[in-house]
Amino acid sequence: MAKTAVSSSEQPYPNPCxxxxxxxxxxxxxxxxxxxDGPIVDVSDRYYSTYQQGLSEVKSIYEAEGEILPxxxxxxxxxxxxxxxxxxxxxxxxxxxxxxxxxxxxxxxxRQIVNQPDLLHRDQLQPGVxxxxxxxxxxxxxLVLVTLRCQQQAESILQHYGLIQFFSEIYGSDNxxxxxxNQADHKTQLLKTAIASWQxxxxxxxxxxxxxxxxxxxxxxxxxxxxxxxxxLTCGIRSQNYLQRFQPTHIHADLVAATHYLVKTQAIAA
Length: 270
What we know:
- It is a single chain.
- The protein has 12 helices and 9 strands.
- It is α/β, with parallel strands linked by helices.
- The chain folds into 2 domains: 18-43 and 124-269, Rossmann fold (3-Layer(aba) Sandwich), CATH 3.40.50; 44-120, no CATH class.
- The strands form 2 sheets. It has a 7-stranded mixed sheet, with helices on both faces.
- β8 (230-233), α11 (240-244) and β9 form a beta-alpha-beta unit.
């Protein structure tokens, strides 16, 4: 695995998508492994815009062939509620009026455009994220980003918002579709790699603690597979009811609420 020291003006992420800051934080005893999409970035506008564009393009294709599709465009609230309950994409297409081969053409188009630059700009920073990351860092917690997002996309957003300095390490995917498919085994492997690095970097591993923060079942299952407590956030692409099925250690509304809990827990332990 490549390890690269980076300056404040340039942060390359060498293949296979790993970043380590100059600071080793060997005295830090609490490490927070955090997902990107959901906890850090709100992707709801991009996903809904992808849905709208895909549906409109499929409608135009069939109209050009002489077939009028009686489509029903879901509102963003309807669409996002279905995503949060993990309604399968073919079911979303079906409820939008597509049938048979139309659904597959729609799904193919969605996969093609979801990561296009003209849609990526719709991702927005979640409220309070900068404050939360600043407080965690100020309290001596080591922050590690573990994401299925393509490393180049994560790098670009972190640089844009001036957040990259908060993370001592970043583990990402080299597959642009990985975040969309959100496979738990892929996330678990990334987290295992990050944990191995963490355990080798702390001065007293037996006294160190760690948490996994994320907004999907993949984050919870990855934390459980690596025996670290998990905090599930409901500000992302899964609802509280859905997340509860996987029995995370705690559930909070967003990264700000999770930060309050971690700081309080740290104070009690001290």
